[in-house]
Design goal:
The strands form 3 sheets. This protein has a 6-stranded antiparallel beta sheet with strand order 1-2-3-4-6-5, with helices on both faces. A 3-stranded antiparallel beta sheet has the order 7-10-11, covered by helices on one side. The protein contains 10 helices and 12 strands. It is of the alpha+beta class and 321 residues long. The radius of gyration is 21 Å and the shape is globular.
């Protein structure tokens, strides 16, 4: 991934990323270390660029995050997808720091962030996910090392969003926030009422490796020489389960044509329904996240809450919930 770096003098030899990289003994001492992106309070992870650190002299991205999360990502790259021939950024492995955090090391990739509005991007993503889902549906490697993606994951998002938003509706908040919360709460409650239909579709579907956060910042596309190479990053939310959330926003026709029989016998209607359920899951996850700020008296995300509520309501119309 190519992201602007912060310019600052960093002691290469003493930097924690360089020390962890040295433990792997997979490349060279970097000529420089750069912070990738901005440092944020309460960020779940941090990225550093090890300039010239790879065996071939290219840059390596070092990601620091929770040890459990990094272990899952490393397993996905090296144990689950690597042996199956799935196209991925090269992963050199990870180093556990022993303090609850760990480092993951990947070759840096360049290109544009994925956009569902870009037809070329959407088709490339749909084909890649179709192939990845199909090969992992048939594979057993790493299943016991990667978490399960269960329907309860999304039910918790639903319950969290509904509880947080419901308790704040009232005349004590700004009118725009009150309108947004009322709209979004109504949509989430509607999904809750239709949950039995969601469960039936879920239980009738095959399982595979699910990325779980297939959005712009986690997918890089390199378009050149008539090709569109796709690089999928950040497998923190991945696991084995029904790929409803991964289907959100895809070209289902392209996806199914690359899924190698995984969906034989299901029909297009089932796939469309599951993709719409994935859209609903994504909206509820956003609402769960945004609504947490309400507990601290922050109503500045009212417009986004209203937007996600509208998206969810329109999606439920598609599912007939």
């Amino acid at each position: 991934m190519t992201v602007p770096a912060q310019s600052q003098a960093i002691n290469v030899l003493d930097h924690p990323a360089a020390l962890a990289w040295r433990q792997l003994s997979r490349g060279q001492v970097p000529v420089a270390i750069e912070r990738v992106g901005r440092a944020r309070r309460r960020a779940k992870s941090a990225l550093w660029r090890l300039v010239g650190g790879s065996p071939s002299g290219h840059s390596v991205i070092a990601k620091q995050s929770r040890a459990a999360t990094i272990a899952v990502e490393s397993c996905v790259y090296l144990t689950v997808l690597g042996p199956l021939g799935v196209t991925l950024p090269k992963c050199y492995g990870h180093v556990d720091c022993g303090d609850g955090t760990a480092w993951l090391f990947l070759d840096e990739v360049s290109g544009a962030r994925y956009s569902e509005q870009n037809v070329t991007h959407r088709r490339a993503a749909s084909a890649w996910l179709g192939q990845m889902h199909a090969v992992t549906n048939k594979a057993d490697s790493g299943r016991d090392l990667v978490p399960a993606v269960t329907l309860e994951r999304y039910q918790l998002f639903l319950e969290s969003a509904l509880a947080n938003m419901s308790r704040h509706i009232g005349p004590q908040i700004p009118s725009d926030a009150q309108s947004a919360l009322s709209l979004a709460t109504s949509a989430v409650a509607r999904l809750q009422m239709g949950w039995p239909k969601v469960r039936r579709a879920w239980c009738a579907s095959p399982i595979c490796l699910v990325h779980g956060d297939f959005i712009g910042k986690n997918v890089i596309l390199d378009e050149r020489d008539g090709r569109c190479d796709i690089h999928v990053l950040d497998w923190e939310a991945s696991g084995w389960g029904v790929p409803a959330e991964d289907l959100a926003g895809l070209d289902v026709s392209v996806y199914s044509s690359h899924a190698s029989g995984m969906w034989d016998g299901y029909g297009r209607e089932h796939l469309d329904t599951l993709a719409n359920i994935g859209d609903a899951f994504r909206a509820v996850a956003f609402l769960s996240n945004y609504s947490k700020a309400l507990n601290m008296g922050w109503f500045g995300d009212a417009a986004e809450i209203a937007h996600q509520g509208s998206v969810l309501a329109a999606t439920l119309d598609q599912i007939a919930l």
